[in-house]
Design goal:
This protein is 19% helix and 22% strand. It has 186 residues and is an alpha+beta fold. The protein has a single domain (5-24, 33-39, 46-177), classed as L,D-transpeptidase catalytic domain-like. An 8-stranded mixed beta sheet has the order 3-2-1-8-4-5-6-7, with helices on one face.
Length: 186
Amino acid sequence: MYPEPAARESRLARFILLLLAGLVPTAFGAALPDAARGAEPREVALKADLVVVEKVQRTLYLLRGGEILRSYRIALGRNPVGPKTREGDSRTPEGVYRLDWRNPESRFYRSIHISYPNETDRRRAAERNVPPGGDIMIHGQPPGSPASPAAQIPWDWTDGCIAVTNDEIDEIWALVDNGTPIEIRP
């Protein structure tokens, strides 16, 4: 379920302020501080209290108190435009969910489960008489992929998941607890 309009406007205002301050990447490649670029992790006692995915920018942000802790370049489902509407559509969902459990022995290198489908997703799928799908994760690369960040598969290739490099999923794994909200935006 999407947040109330006032909460959405507040988040949008915060995002615009961060954008104007040069703390959010743009299509023009605005510089980011080292922490937001995913630089080498420092001793960080604080964990993210919100994960935001901007699908059109192919970026995942870890935030704490509205401040960007890290950002990562991502790959999405093979059919990335629009919200997930049914099982097998290869779309990454859009909406507000939770990171609710993790799998250290995932088919891809590590995975953190996103609580898709939520009640709204199930209702919409039922109205169309189709299964909503599930098993949407943030995960690393497929087995046998090179380990370097530059070797991340450079196109949208998942079945609807959000993919990062193996080093990045290790960092996200450490900085995000189960129960953390994730907002996936168009």
